[in-house]
Amino acid sequence: MISIYVQILLIILFWNADCQIIPRIEECGLSCSQGVHCKSKPSGGIFNSFCHDAPASLSSMVLKSMKISTVMKCVQGSPCSLHLNIKGTLSLDENVRGLEICSFSLDTQQSQCINVRFTRKKSKMLNGKKVQVEFNCIEVNVAQHIYVTMKTVPHYCEVKLSQQYYVEDCRNSDVGKYIPACSAGKLDYNLDRAKKIVMVNVSNFPQDQDYYVRLCHKWFTCEDVGAFAVIKGKESFKSVSLKYSQLLPCLCIEGWLALPDARRIQLCPFENDTQVLWDNIVYNPLTQTLAWEPACPVLVMVNLCRFIKSNDYCEDIENTFKNSPEKQVKYSRVDTHPRLCVKFTTKRGSWIKCPFAHGEFPAWKMRTAAVAEQIQVFFTSQSKARFSVLVCNRTQMASCESLEMHHSVSVGDSVSINVSREMCGSTICIQGWRTDVDYSVPLQICDTYCGFRGQSHSDGNPAKAMTHRMKSVQSLH
Fold it and tell me: Which letter does DSSP use for residue 438 in this model?
């Protein structure tokens, strides 16, 4: 339970940080409390970098505290800027003439220092009193990492305050809205499919800043697709051309200012073009494994099905359904028959892909021949295989109810099935499938011819009847 409370507290703290309103100022400056007159001037910092031994009468607590915050300077007609607001408390002493406040950027290695001097006559009268100094004229950038020091003038050893500070980034709603550096810009694009180029136009960003543009594949984060392009702020032409290899639904255009932790904007114009994802089917003939791996994250139900030519319908094969938003889908020991297909179903519809339909892999065939009161079933295949055969009653287009007449047969052999007159109806089918694999398509031959039906073979030549009524599964449905 403690961990839950800690998580809730962290969420509240991060939410408050992002939603914190930055105080506004119209002018920056220096102020001192207790009626002490003070003034500031820039300092190189070098003359105060060496310390002196403090007098015995000087308290080590002459510098009491230092607090740092961010303020936003906004003047009508000009863009807003961020400044450090530094507050320090000093105990006035005759041995202290003033303060030096320095900021050092750990990002840019640049420093700014100012000297704060007190009127000597006034400060002597208030000797021992505490005075609060506030200075807010050090301009900073978004998300800067700053190191701030406060020393006495002159600088006495061991009398110093220091603190690290992180300036708010563009995730802060106030900073993101009013600071130009947080403007992510606006992206527009044109597509040249023949050359596989995306031409990106960028607008609405500070003209003195460089701007980065790239193509990326959006998963949990947006992963690079090639190098990013730079639009120079000083250039009038604000367009770049980016090459792509394939238009995927997760292909996005991303742009951001060339600043640390700048806000990024994404444009993903191909989100609905999911059909290209279904082409990534691979078959390994050595392991007989059929695999599909999404090139982009997609919520999809995958299953195998048996394609029926007559109505372009694909009958689902039981126990093959797999739900895979990101991981690879695999089917081991798969039959390479042209009618074994893969069905992909999303909220936008279903797509059928038949990886063996182009004849690149060996396919088996089933045929029947009627001889007297028997039906002979033959299987042909370019590779070794075993099959099962049964007689079934086709109650619907996609279902055939077994009549419990089951037989096994190998390639090159045949099986004879005894039939009665009742079995010669139009709904009786011969169904066969491979048993030496885990996933096979069941094929059916229906409306079977019976040798004693119609007495059309007066010469009694069973071979002639076999030749006349032999059916190939390729001509069915």
Answer: S
Q: Which residues pair with 439 in a beta bridge?
A: 334
Mean pLDDT by 10 residues, the chain (477 residues): 51 51 94 85 71 85 92 90 95 88 90 87 69 94 92 89 93 86 86 94 83 91 88 83 92 88 86 88 93 89 89 88 82 94 92 91 84 80 87 74 75 71 71 91 76 36 31 35
Q: What CA–CA distance (Å, rounded) separates 5 from 8?
A: 5
Q: 134-164 burial, b for 16+ CB within 10 Å, e for fewer?
A: ebbbbebbbbbebebbbbbbbbbeebebeee
Whole-structure pTM value: 0.58
Half-sphere exposure of 50 (CA within 13 A, CB side): 1
Show the tokens assigned to 269: 């114009």
With beta carbons less than 8 A apart as the criterion, state whether 321 and 301 touch: yes
Report whether 281 contacts 342 (CB < 8 A).
yes
Q: Residue 198 in contact with residue 191, Cβ under 8 Å?
A: yes
- Our CA dihedral for 169, 172, 173, 175, rounded to 10 degrees, sits at -40
